[in-house]
Design a protein that fits this description.
It is found in: Cell envelope. With about 260 residues, the chain is mainly alpha-helical. It has 9 helices and 4 strands.
Length: about 260
């Protein structure tokens, strides 16, 4: 067989192989963008899942008491009073001794069967309003805050809610059984709730005086029986302070004669 015929036969054999290789190359070229898109979609999906899980984890952490102290160092003493064992001697947010930690509402309400929820966390009372959190973050970063924090009265605690102070303790998580049809404190119900006491601190016989819950019930220091400012026949709950003692705590802490509630 001549060399010319051999070359012709070889070309005839090689032609299908070349066609197959060309077809394969075309197929690979066509599938390559699709494969890249699929891989890119998987990567984006994984990243989205990781971000979502991180967000859920952060939100769960945000709901725990430890979050506040971890982010803001001036919250440590508040977390400490919340975490103290109940019904025993302890210390308030200023480091003052407290004869019974149940006199601090943060300690008492951590596990309490007299409210709408049996398990209380910081956010149960201190609702996370975005505007308030942004304001606090700006104040913290700029150093424009008190340490220890100044005392807050009821109006301060509900300011960002746009609600009156007396709704702080009668929201749906707390003492909702004391509400009227408008969600405000029903003072007749409030008076009836302690009518069994020899001296009823919720008696409404002073028509010209309307006090907020936080005037007496303190979250992170010993609560104060304000009635002792006038009445001497008052039996103090265990660990509570008289009005004079409560005023002295604030005067000593802030080195001022101004009375803080």
């Amino acid at each position: 067989m001549s060399d010319e015929m051999k070359n012709t036969d070889k070309q005839a054999v090689d032609a299908p192989e070349a066609d197959m290789q060309a077809a394969k190359a075309d197929t690979d070229a066509a599938s390559s963008p699709s494969l890249k898109k699929r891989k890119k979609g998987i990567v984006i999906g994984v990243i989205a899942v990781v971000i979502a899980l991180a967000g859920v984890g952060f939100w769960e952490w945000h709901e725990t008491p430890g979050f506040c102290a971890a982010i803001c160092h001036n919250m440590d003493q508040y977390l400490d009073t919340y975490s103290e064992p109940g019904d025993q001697p302890g210390h308030d947010k200023y480091g003052n001794p407290v004869s019974n930690t149940n006199a601090m509402m943060a300690t008492l309400h951590r596990t309490n069967e007299t409210t709408g929820k049996s398990d209380f966390r910081c956010m149960t009372c201190h609702h996370p309003i975005i505007g308030e959190q942004v304001s606090e973050a700006v104040g913290f970063v700029s150093g424009n805050y008190y340490d220890p924090l100044d005392e807050r009265v009821g109006d301060d605690l509900t300011h960002w809610w746009g609600e009156p102070a007396n709704k702080f303790c009668v929201n749906e998580n707390c003492h909702s059984y004391l509400r009227d049809e408008n969600g405000d404190v029903n003072y007749d119900k409030l008076e009836a709730s302690t009518v069994w006491m020899d001296f009823n601190p919720h008696s409404q016989h002073h028509e010209d005086i309307r006090m907020d819950c936080t005037d007496c019930h303190k979250g992170h220091r010993a609560s104060v029986q304000q009635c002792t400012g006038c009445h001497e026949d008052v039996n103090l709950p265990d660990g509570w302070l008289t009005k004079a003692e409560g005023d002295k705590v604030i005067a000593d802490e802030f080195n001022t004669s101004q009375v803080h509630k």
